[in-house]
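Hello again,

I reread your note about wanting to compare the complex against the isolated chains. To keep things tidy I'm splitting this into two emails, and this first one only covers the full assembly. Below are the input lines as submitted, including protein chains and any nucleic acid or small-molecule components. They are followed by the predicted structure of everything together. The single-chain runs will come separately.
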Amino acid sequence: MNLVVAPLLIPLATAFLCALAQPSPRLQRVLSLGGALTLLICATVLLQQVLIHGAVSMTAGNWPQPFGIQFTADRLGVALVLVAALMVTIAVLWQESDVDAAPSSPALHPLLHGLVAGANGAFLTADLFNLYVWFEVALICSLGLLAQGGALRQLDATLKYFALNLVGTLLLLTAIALLYAATGHLNLVALGDAAARQDPAIMLPLIGLLLVAFLVKAAAFPFFAWLPASYHTLPGPVLALFSALLSKIGICALIRILAGVFQPGQALLCDLLGWIALLSMVTGVLGAAYHWDMRRILAFHSVSQVGYMLLAIALASRAGDAAAIFFALHHSLVKAGLFLTAAMIFRHAGHYDLRRVGGLYAARPGLAAMFLLLALSLVGIPPLSGFWGKYLIVRESLLQGEYLWAVTALGVGALTLYSMMKIWFEAFWKPHPDKSWQLPARPRLKPAYIGLGALVLVTLWMGLYPEPILGFVIDAAAMLRGETP
Amino acid sequence: MIWAVALALGTVIAAGTYLALSRDLLRCLIGLALLGNGINLLLFSSGRLGSNAPPVIAAGETTLGSAANPLPQALVLTAIVISFALLCYSLVLGVRLIKLAGSDDVSRLRAAEPPATESDKPALEETA
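Full-complex prediction:
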């Protein structure tokens, strides 16, 4: 049986069933968790298939290529689908706890699964216009999730998110229209072949426009303003899902376009992308250094970490793409874990702002250990997963003679350490500023700890035994470039 | 024909950009919707303009001849539906926001990112 479209159909069906089950919140929660677990199993089976048989494809209506709409599960796509499945399972599980869970609303679970369907579609599609449609599905569901609270600050954040992302999708649509007019193809493989026969002077601005659209989605400098303006108004589990999925949609599309479709590589665009990556890394980390709200610190770090992925893509080699894929997987898990830890800190100490919390090292040493593992992994301290991501990027930069890029990547790592240690000292080490503060009585923490623990274990595994994943991402990069592994 | 469409496209996009840059929230949203419609027009014209022949390949031929390519027309239908849904959503959002904030001036909508009160530290965020 062909499972390629199952990661789209399962969340869509779950969203539909959850919407039908809205008179009974209990049934809705059961359906939602069941759908998330089914997706997780299905993504694992699909990964197995891809590992054994190579990329698996399906064309709608059995149309001959390049006319049918095609879905292809290659290694990059299926790995991101697996991450999405894991994250939605954790988010739904987290809803069972009382740790900054989203206010229960009948639309919450359908929107969560709709967002996952949009993201999975964008990871798996092999058709440019179809990619636009999945971007829109994800955008519409995320708009719904952002507006859930209905308070002024949430609606304000939704507006900023809406306006900037809409401009991004309009740029994408423009690029698609012009590329179609120039080449007559939308299928990514056929588009790549047709583009190679076209005048490079015509193709360069069109590909550039496409990249700008993806950079808006990936929250890169100077288009990142939507991300730190909106993320911190979301409840904990939804925020973790957003941080794991949304910018990865843009990153995945960028890797596909630059490494796979438009070969031979666009040297000028890759050079420009490298400088954009540097500016993203530096502005993101400096923005984070200024802030005291944990969610905003972590949101600005997302911008800086997107910079690392862009830098790896800009290196335009097999090792560079492999590093970008590894970093994307690592960042999805670790950053989501950190957002969830921030929610735990909020639940225990009563605030997201570091000036209002403290004393958690004495009160919750287990949580402190989990935070430290995730934070040091984000910084890139060996032997945690972030170390391997940064090692691959810095090594490839040095091999290509881009010493400035390598040095900036290391320097930004040091500034990341500053922000993480700020959270460590303020939330865990210093005593709580309020002398009468006590741990909340009888919180429902178990589902939250299970979710967070799973992320910490995966991060530890990626760090301590990276061999299988390193081999996997190098094969994934080779697969994208159409080279033999 | 192509010149008339190009001129219309330029006008719509210029008007959309002008409105989208406005500080009035509703104008800004209408501007974004106009921009979307301008881009839809661009997508539509990426087929072929000015032909009213049916898009059917004649017997014995292998190409479409002078008829317009029907694919961009199908694509633009999808894009129109999406942009209309987003326009509706944004108008509801805008109206609700104006009611809650008591102002339709975009530069005064600072609820999500409140301006700093001290010179070197950001404002305390609400936790809700």
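For quick reference: The mean pLDDT of chain A is 92.

B.
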